[in-house]
Amino acid sequence: MTALDVVPMLRLPSSWPLVVNATVAMAALAVIDLVAAYAAKEWVLHRASSMLALGVVSMVLLFWVYASALQFAELSVVTFGWIVLLQLGVLVLDQFKYGVNHPPRTWLVVAIMMAAQGYLVLGSTS
Fold it and tell me: Please, are residues 43 and 58 in contact by the beta-carbon 8 Å criterion?
């Protein structure tokens, strides 16, 4: 038994197709990372120690979920999808929580990246 065996890995049903497993992993990573981004922004604005703690816990959880996701999906697929979904979440958070207006070309780029992400996930064979 090694030190790494002490931390259990998350498991998704093996009966689920790769596309579903990868999508669940990407969405989970994006949500956890978005929570961490929100905590960081709030900590900078208000210096609330609860937000700092939330950010630290979120980052530890993010690492654990990321390591677990690599059991059933390729690194490049999971990472690209996670980042695209995170960026979409950050744009939406900025717009609705902090009042930042994004030009239409920003949303066009997001749509193109979402299409590329779909192509990458659906085209993955591992």
Answer: no
Query: What are the pLDDT digits (tens) for 70-80?
Result: 887 888 888 98
Q: What is the dihedral of CA 4, 18, 62, 89, to 10 degrees?
A: 170
CA-to-CA distance for 86 and 71, rounded, in angstroms?
21
Q: What is the pLDDT of residues 37-65, one digit of tens each?
A: 999 999 999 999 999 999 999 999 999 99
pTM reported for the whole predicted model: 0.82
User: In 75-90, which positions are buried (b, 16+ CB within 10 angstroms) versus exposed (e)?
Assistant: eebbbbbbbbbbbbbb
